[in-house]
Write a structure and sequence with these properties.
The chain is of the alpha+beta class. The protein folds into two domains: 2-265, Clam (outer membrane lipoprotein receptor (LolB), chain A); 277-490, 4-Layer Sandwich (Metallo-beta-lactamase, Chain A), CATH 3.60.15. It has eleven helices and 26 strands. The protein has a 13-stranded antiparallel β-sheet. Helix 1 (2-12) packs parallel to helix 3, helix 2 (27-35) packs antiparallel against helix 4 and helix 10 (450-462) packs across helix 11. The radius of gyration is 24 Å and the shape is elongated.
């Protein structure tokens, strides 16, 4: 919380330092004059292009899923600080492989907002619930970083944080590198000979990638209403594009009000995990947006899924020990490789649990986890342990003579090729992720996720599994009957 407040305060200082005494000849001051930073209180830019869903790649060799942006408008209040991202998204890839709303039926209108320490979404004109923590950082902080990833925002932040400069020759051209550190991370930007920001990099600690960067590149600067602004913006994270847009309009100092509504300001903090729910003898569910399930064996515990963050895994492990005391968590089963399903895996590895995942994920995870974690070290980094993996090909039976559990790899799913599901034959329960996420978790529900639901249903039939209950990692407990009724209701084309 201290880090979050410090970050917000640092961003709030942007306006107040715009007039701070600077050597008129410094590169930062020249860039500020060229970019029109003095007197810039608010900024709005709009256009079209593409965006990508971070951490939702089809497999370890794929880029993030790509969507069309027929139109977007980004509004910034530098003083608040506040940020509003209003965009229309549409399906682009065919076939639609991967996660993050893939496949997308029709056009989606998304509005993401952050103001000070608050972050929320607006759906159909109504503010949704406060956003959860993400990537081990508050969502408000993650969204507000977009302010610093604009040329004007970067220069304002550089002026507020006593940035240093150095001159280097890069590919035969003379560049000025601007570096500084804030409570939210380390920044470095590149200025060209025209005093324009060409590139910005921000370093931070990520739950899956460790020490990583988000990068922004700016090209084709133009004069928009008397202010220089890039007509092309490209952002990358994790080595792949994150945003690729053409800017067609810029407004300087538009009237802007981005205040958190009372429903957001007064909302109680969302716990990392809700009250445990007993599903059957020795089978417990730990609710959250992405849940975990614990299964008790004679001398140990198996946990299915370690989603989201280390904080969530710590909370789940503590809750598991309350409801199943005196037994170690020996295995954690991972359904697939999307980041919201692996963000807490390292926490279990730090405790000595073996990670069971589809065979092809093992080298992918080993590669991602091999990098340094100095910015925000987690428990595994501090423990010095080497994580232990077990790769599943086909199926894996786990039994102690009284309880059995079978892990199945059901290949061919468009969401992810390494999908695993967990079947408890005695309880007739199936635990799965993202093939069936019934309302009120519509991200992979029909009509968007109809193909994946159909594939799950076919896999259950092919394996001749006797399923009564389905335990989705996203969404409420359901039944196979309800899932198949949904298939029948929407039909093959996803229409009601």
């Amino acid at each position: 919380m201290k880090k979050t407040c410090a970050t917000v305060l640092a961003l709030a200082a942007l306006l107040s330092v715009a007039g701070r005494a600077q050597d008129a000849g410094t590169p930062i001051d020249r860039a500020a004059r060229t970019l029109g930073v003095a007197g810039l209180n608010t900024l709005e830019y709009s256009g079209f292009g593409f965006d990508y869903v971070f951490g939702q790649a089809y497999n370890g060799n794929s880029a993030w899923p790509r969507f069309s942006l027929p139109g977007f408008t980004m509004t910034i209040d530098f003083a608040a600080p506040a940020f509003l991202d209003d965009k229309r998204r549409a399906q682009l890839e065919n076939p639609p492989l991967g996660g993050g709303f893939q496949p997308l039926a029709g056009e989606m209108h998304q509005v993401w907002v952050a103001s000070g320490a608050y972050a929320w979404d607006v759906v159909d004109g109504n503010p949704g619930p406060p956003r959860r923590r993400d990537d081990r950082r508050p969502v408000a902080e993650g969204r507000l970083e977009q302010i610093a990833l604009t040329p004007q925002g970067f220069i304002k932040l550089a002026m507020a944080n006593n940035a240093t400069t150095r001159v280097e020759t890069i590919r035969g051209a003379t560049k000025t590198l601007v570096s500084f550190t804030t409570p939210g991370g380390r920044f470095e930007g590149t200025l060209n000979e025209k005093n324009l920001v060409e590139r910005i990099e921000r370093w931070f600690g990520h739950a899956v990638l460790g020490d990583t960067t988000i990068e922004a590149e700016f090209n084709d600067y133009r004069d928009f209403e008397g202010m220089m602004f890039p007509a092309h913006i490209l952002q990358r994270q994790g080595g792949y594009p994150l945003l690729d847009v053409t800017v067609t309009g810029v407004r300087r100092n538009p009237a802007v009000t981005i205040d958190a509504p009372a429903s957001i300001r007064n909302a109680s903090p969302e716990p990392a995990v809700g009250t445990p729910e007993r599903l059957a003898e020795g089978v417990w569910m730990f609710p959250s947006y992405a849940k975990s399930i614990a299964i008790e064996f004679r001398d140990h515990i198996v946990v299915v899924e370690a989603p989201e963050t280390e904080a969530q895994s710590i909370a789940v492990m503590a809750a598991v020990r309350q409801v199943i005391p005196g037994k170690p968590i020996r295995y954690v089963i991972n359904t697939h490789s999307h980041f919201d399903h692996i963000g807490g895996l390292r926490t279990y590895a730090a405790e000595g649990a073996t990670i069971i995942t589809q065979r092809d994920n093992v080298p992918y995870y080993q590669q991602m986890w091999a990098g340094p974690r100095t910015i925000n070290p987690d428990r595994l980094a501090m423990s010095g342990r080497t994580p232990v993996f077990e790769g599943v090909l086909g199926n894996r039976l786990m039994t102690d003579g009284s309880r059995s559990l079978v892990v199945y790899h059901y290949a061919g799913n468009m969401h992810n090729p390494g999908m695993l599901m967990v079947y408890l034959p005695k309880e007739k329960m199936l635990i799965e992720a993202d093939s069936y996420s019934p309302p009120a978790a519509p991200l992979t529900s029909p009509p968007n996720g109809l193909a994946n639901l159909g594939h799950l249903s076919e896999s259950v039939e092919r394996l001749r599994l006797d399923v009564e209950q389905i335990i989705p990692i996203h969404g409420p407990v359901s039944t196979l009957t309800a899932a198949r009724e949904m298939l029948d209701r929407f039909g093959a084309n996803g229409a009601n």
